[in-house]
Design brief:
mainly alpha; 8 helices; 2 strands; about 10% strand
Length: about 160
């Protein structure tokens, strides 16, 4: 009855749940990234896209989306913003859209890489070195093992 339901609620602490903790860590990581990159004004997804485009210039926009695990709407909005800022060019080839980083985009990418070089270290600083390695390894296992449940699974 009701008392049993209330007792079950007393035993459940959402702040100890993996999903909640992962969401909180994502919030923290994003805040740390935005603080480090305030002068550039790029978001983590814009940085991921710019990085992927620079390294895979011959890929179509949809392939870049898959690489960084975003949907079509998001990659369209992100690349539109990158183009507006002059960091990326869209090259239409029939129905295909290829992306290329501009010289100013390469400059921004270098600034972002310098600003974020120690981001991961800072984020994982509360863990000892062995804990950092184990945590990243566990994250990879979780992401790869649950990839099929993503709205945008990576290939």
């Amino acid at each position: 009855g009701r008392k049993r339901d209330e007792a079950a609620l007393d035993d459940f602490e959402f702040r100890d749940q993996a999903g909640h903790l992962i969401r909180r860590l994502h919030q923290i990581a994003t805040s740390m990234f935005l603080e480090r990159c305030r002068d550039v004004g790029a978001t983590p997804v814009q940085y991921a896209a710019l990085n992927a485009i620079a390294r895979h210039a011959s890929f179509e926009q949809r392939h870049i989306a898959r690489m960084i695990a975003v949907d079509r709407t998001t990659i369209n909005l992100v690349t539109k913003k990158l183009c507006e800022r002059g960091w990326v060019e869209r090259l239409a080839e029939g129905k295909r859209i290829r992306l290329r980083v501009t010289p100013s985009g390469l400059d921004i990418l270098q600034r972002l890489e310098a600003a974020t070089a120690s981001h991961g270290e800072e984020l994982l600083a509360p863990l000892d070195p062995a804990g950092r390695t184990a945590f990243v390894k566990a994250l990879k296992v979780l992401v790869e093992g649950n990839n099929e449940f993503s709205r945008v699974p990576t290939s």
